[in-house]
Amino acid sequence: MSNIRLFFPESLSINLTDKLNKSQSHYLAKVMRINIGKKFSLFNQNGEWEAKITNITKGIVEFSTIKKLRSKDNEKEIWLAFAPIKFNYLNLMIQKATELGVSKFIPILTERTIVRKINEKRLNKIIIEASEQSNRLKVPKLDEIIKLDNFLKFNHETNIIFGDLNTDNKKIIVKGTEPLCILIGPEGDFTLKEREKILKLKNIIPLKINENILRAETAAISMISILTFKLLS
Q1: Are the C-beta atoms of 62 and 56 separated by less than 8 Å?
Q2: CATH of the structural domain 78-232, one choice from 2.170.130.30, 3.40.50.300, 3.40.1280.10, 3.30.160.340
Q3: Which of 13, 53, 69, 188 is deepest in the core (most CB within 10 A)?
Q4: Can you list the alpha helix ranges (DSSP code H) found in 141-210?
Q5: Please, is 58 exposed, middle or buried when counting C-beta atoms within 10 Å of its C-beta (0-12, 13-18, 19+)?
Q6: At what angle are helices 216-232 and 87-100 packed, to 10 degrees?
């Protein structure tokens, strides 16, 4: 089986014939330099299929699927709610969180959020590439930016693990059902008023993961790693 994996959002089935988009065609034909008859993999949330290049016309790769390699995964529903940070650190956080198994990203605006806009197209590209690289089937969803108050309102019954430097709790006790949402504050942390609102939630779990003050992307990656290890244990 080829180690080249490409995300294909449309329906896949045995003996399907279709075309790749311009970007994917360029990657296969010009970057990887694979020719007609060569095999690669296509995947989406419903599984993964082996495919073969049948033609390359005007730079567009045509393919047919040969066999199904994997069926749908039962991935854990892990969300990451975060205040946007500077783009290079944000790109790293999104990439690593995708590799670690986050299924949804929720950017939130807080009083101390400095970066108040995100490049959704760029972040979705990073998410897809990280999913291809990490052997995932389900590509995480990127939500639109939401204000903290609205996030708390819409998720008042969601199990939220709150990265809180001011708590003494250092244990994760997962209560109830999925999804599990990790909540990370902005640079400078949440304000006292925001923290009080967060701690009033029904299913909130404040968690201190380190005695040191961590950068937002470090805290996010650390908490995701701890949670996924806990769920796998």
Answers
A1: yes
A2: 3.40.1280.10
A3: 53
A4: 148-154, 192-199
A5: exposed
A6: 0
Kind plus residue range of the DSSP H or E element containing 166: none
Q: Which residues pair with 41 in a beta bridge?
A: 5, 50
| pLDDT single digits (tens) 192-216 | 999 999 999 988 999 999 999 899 9
Treating both helix axes as pointing N-terminal to C-terminal, what angle do 120-133 and 87-100 enclose, rounded to 10 degrees?
40
Model confidence, pTM:
0.93
Please report the DSSP string for 106-142 in residue order.
EEEE-TT-S-----HHHHHHHHHHHHHHTT-SSPPEE
Domain ranges of the chain: 5-71, 78-232
CATH 2.40.240.20 fits 5-71, yes or no: yes
What does the angle CA 205 – CA 45 – CA 101 come to, to the nearest 5 degrees? Answer: 35
For residue range 47-67, list pLDDT tens digits in order.
999 999 999 999 999 999 999
Side chain identity, residue 184: I
CB 220 within 8 A of CB 100: no
